[in-house]
Design brief:
alpha/beta; 8-stranded mixed sheet; two-stranded antiparallel sheet; 8 helices; 37% helix; 19% strand; globular
Length: 190
């Protein structure tokens, strides 16, 4: 069952929480990265808390939402989330394994999306997430599938790069080492 909060005046954050976590499981003895604890909360709980704190509407795509799709990948999760929120005023696509993306960054990207077709946060010359898409990209997003996500949709538009001071846009927790780095960043943030 997916949880959604909707507000049609702002873009919707589509939280991708349907991945298999294969790299993390292999390195951690079988634990799913979204269930791993990060300072007293699971990675997924931290991600959702930041999304909620942004004030933006959101929709979570879980494994059950794409279970009917054979060999489903990130693209299928994106398409499923966009279809479920088809009346949204654009989308910010956020993988759930980015638990440190700051609420103020999410909101700033939402504001940038008002005047651009595609927005991409950039932290220290690294492109990150969430990637924002205007309603003009809706049809193309509903058609993405497989593991490539929405890279082709980004390539079809002139992406507006948004410099951010938020390591959380590039620090995912695909490995236990990255989880330890996230733990350190959280401690530094206080």
């Amino acid at each position: 069952m997916s949880f959604s909060k909707t507000d049609n005046s702002l873009p919707t954050v589509v939280v991708l929480a349907a991945g298999r976590s294969e790299r993390f499981k292999a390195a951690s003895g079988g634990q799913h990265k979204l269930d791993t604890m990060l300072q007293g909360r699971s990675v997924l709980e931290r991600t959702l808390a930041n999304v909620q704190a942004s004030g933006l509407p959101f929709h979570v795509v879980r494994a059950a939402d794409i279970a009917h799709i054979e060999n489903a990948g990130m693209g299928d999760s994106i398409a499923t989330g966009v279809v479920a929120t088809q009346n949204a005023n654009g989308w910010l696509i956020l993988p759930a394994d980015l638990p440190l993306a700051l609420p103020k960054t999410l909101f700033a990207l939402a504001l940038e999306l008002a005047s651009h077709e595609v927005v991409v946060p950039v932290y220290e010359n690294q492109r990150g997430h969430p990637v924002g898409f205007s309603v003009m990209c809706g049809e193309a997003l509903r058609k993405v599938s497989g593991d490539q996500g929405a890279a082709r949709v980004v390539a079809q538009h002139k992406a507006h790069l948004v410099p951010v001071e938020d390591i959380g846009c590039v620090l995912d927790v695909d490995t236990p080492a990255q989880l330890a780095q996230a733990e350190k960043v959280l401690l530094e943030r206080g």
